[in-house]
Design brief:
The protein has 395 residues and is α/β, with parallel strands linked by helices. The chain folds into 2 domains: 137 residues, Aspartate Aminotransferase, domain 1, CATH 3.90.1150; 233 residues, 3-Layer(aba) Sandwich (Aspartate Aminotransferase, domain 2). It is 39% helix and 16% strand. The mean pLDDT is 97. The structure holds pyridoxal-5'-phosphate.
């Protein structure tokens, strides 16, 4: 017996569910890329992306995924032999650092934990020891999509300043931009990057980078620059060169529609929607965790991301068994545990085009799975989620 029919419910942390309006925006014939509407769309997107990153600096659009945007960010500001400091809090900052190492950059990892956020005081202490200013950049993620942690980027930016260090601050906002507050200039971030397919509700294929004035200064002498990623090459007036070649026409229409939808909702409303739906998930998980077979991966409640929740499942049936049940029997696709958590965790994404029925449906199906598989859990997780949402909406 299966209960799956119709549209699959995607609860993985990227690519995420796309609004029908975004899909429809791409349904158009090929068009002239040298004149007309597309040029205005590019100009509006570049301006609006800087607005989204909250920077007076420039934005750049690449035909790439997040890994491409990582490389774009690195190659534009670093040189061979430069040293960088990577702030570990899960998988993704370390992955960004691995890309840097392959490019010939010396990478030091500030050891962290898969269950906690980066500690700003540890960043400050490490940078204070770097008296010769060998460290040229500090790399961090806002949300680590594997561990489910949210790092306090503002506090890390302050820690860099408090150390009196002039390293560039480079931040990965792939799993947070458009869902949670991000303030590039206020938080003294020099380079930020993101991608289209998570909070931004757009198909995979667009990588985004924003650069502030300090980054653009360093860029002038960076020797890792290559033709495709190079900021300078993209800064002329010619539309074709803004993409170092043919623009991703249809993805640009999709992104334009997605940003229109975000701006129409209003940032505060979008952030609040994410916060409430994330908290509904956390309410359910807290109840399930009462029997100690399930647990939050992130131990401190204040460090849990509003875009993805990583849940540990101890013993058997395993997290993968639960995931298989939800997908095969009920048509809900949960995220798997990755890296060190492979097989031991599942993830519920709540980012981007997400609403109450999607979250409550996902929680309901997960609870059915816990019951069918007889994984011991506290009862009433979904009820706790609905009660929380009810109280919040009444308030
Ligand atoms: C998904 C993700 C990436 C990688 O993006 P891809 O588009 O898969 O290359 C990088 N950083 C974070 C935080 C992510 O969640």
């Amino acid at each position: 017996m299966v209960l799956r029919a119709g549209r699959e419910f995607l609860a993985i942390p990227g690519p995420t569910t796309m609004p029908d309006e975004v899909l429809a925006a791409m349904h158009r014939p090929a068009m002239d890329i040298y004149a007309g509407e597309l040029i205005a769309i590019t100009d509006s997107l570049l301006a609006d992306l800087s607005r989204l990153f909250r920077t007076a600096g420039r934005s750049y659009i690449y035909i790439a995924n997040g890994h491409g945007a990582w490389e774009a960010a690195l190659t534009n500001v670093l040189s061979r032999g430069d040293k960088i400091l990577v702030l570990e809090s899960g998988r993704f900052a370390v992955g960004w650092g691995e890309a840097a190492a392959r490019l010939g950059v010396e990478v030091e990892i500030l050891p962290g934990s898969w269950s906690r956020a980066v500690r700003p005081e540890a960043v400050e202490a490490r940078l204070k020891q770097d008296s010769g200013s060998r460290i040229k950049a500090v790399l961090a993620v806002q949300v680590d999509t594997a561990s489910g942690v949210v790092n306090d980027i503002a506090a890390i930016g302050q820690a860099i300043r408090a150390a009196g260090h002039d390293a560039l601050f480079m931040v990965d906002a792939v799993a947070s931009l458009g869902c949670m507050p991000f303030a590039m200039d206020d938080w003294r971030i020099d380079v930020a990057m993101s991608a289209s397919q998570k909070g931004l509700m757009t198909p995979p294929g667009i990588g985004l980078v924003a650069a502030g004035p300090r980054a653009r200064d360093v860029h002038l002498k960076a020797d890792l620059r290559t033709p495709y990623w190079d900021w300078t090459a993209r800064e002329g007036e010619e539309h074709y060169m803004k993409y170092s070649g043919t623009p991703p026409v249809h993805l640009l229409y999709a992104l334009r529609k997605a940003l229109d939808m975000l701006f129409a909702e209003g940032a505060e409303n979008t952030f609040r929607r994410h916060r409430l739906l994330a908290e509904a998930v956390r309410q359910a998980v807290s109840v399930w965790a009462e029997r100690e077979r399930l647990a939050f991966n992130i131990t401190a409640p204040g460090e849990r991301s509003d875009t993805v929740t990583t849940v540990l499942v101890h013993g058997t049936p395993s997290a993968d068994d639960l995931k298989d049940f939800c997908r095969d029997t009920c048509g809900v696709v949960l995220g798997n545990g990755i890296g060190a958590l492979s097989g031991h965790a599942f993830r519920i994404a709540h980012m981007g085009h997400i609403n109450a029925p999607m979250v409550l449906g996902t929680l309901g199906v997960t609870e059915v799975g816990l019951n069918v598989l007889r994984i011991p859990h506290g009862t009433g997780g979904v009820q706790a989620a609905t009660a929380y949402l009810g109280d919040s909406l009444r308030a």
